[in-house]
Amino acid sequence: MKTFNIIITGVGGQGIITAGTLISEAAIKMGLNVVMSEIHGLSQRGGSVNVEVRIGDAYGPISPRRKFDLVLGFEPIETMRILSTINSDARVIMNKEKITPISVSLKDAEYPDVNGMALLIPGIKKIYEIDAGDIGNQAGSFRSANTVMIGAVLSLGILPVDEKSIIEALNDRFSGKMLDINLKAMKLGMEAMKKMDASL
């Protein structure tokens, strides 16, 4: 199958690597070839984290010419850093939660205004913005925001993996209360995206 290239970006501690692992494990359960790579800084210092997941006829971990079909942006600034590398028809889902990067806080600078920045990048048609942290809290823990993001992209129907395989991956990774929270977070993420997509 044609390779589907995903980049998940944000700040250390947001569960970005876990999100990439869940998608990768779901792909394996569906019998698909998958390659995952990660580049990350220190979560304690607000380090940037990028995870690439390539599903399909991919043999190397890095996307050619760094072209992506999907961006899951867990933090606005980190999302904006990635946008110039994606395909013109790519989908972008961005968590609204702002985390001040160390480069800004050390300089005693203000968090930049990211509103409208996507319009300055050629080819970006739409960014779906979702309050994943708030939805995660509704599910029982803000730490389930990463599963909210996975639910949101599942709702768009563009991932090569399905809801059943994600649920199986969640069952392998979590148990008890944390499993219940993450399953609920995924469902709430799906519902939030359906409402948003229907309003566009």
TrEMBL record:
Gene3D superfamilies for this protein: Pyruvate-ferredoxin oxidoreductase, PFOR, domain III
Keyword Membrane among record annotations: no
Keyword Oxidoreductase: yes
Span of domain Pyruvate/ketoisovalerate oxidoreductase catalytic: 12-191
InterPro entries: IorB_Oxidoreductase (IPR052198), Pyrv/ketoisovalerate_OxRed_cat (IPR019752), Pyrv_flavodox_OxRed_cen (IPR002869)
Sorted UniProt keywords: Oxidoreductase, Pyruvate
One GO MF term attached to the UniProt entry: oxidoreductase activity, acting on the aldehyde or oxo group of donors
The protein, known as: Indolepyruvate oxidoreductase subunit beta
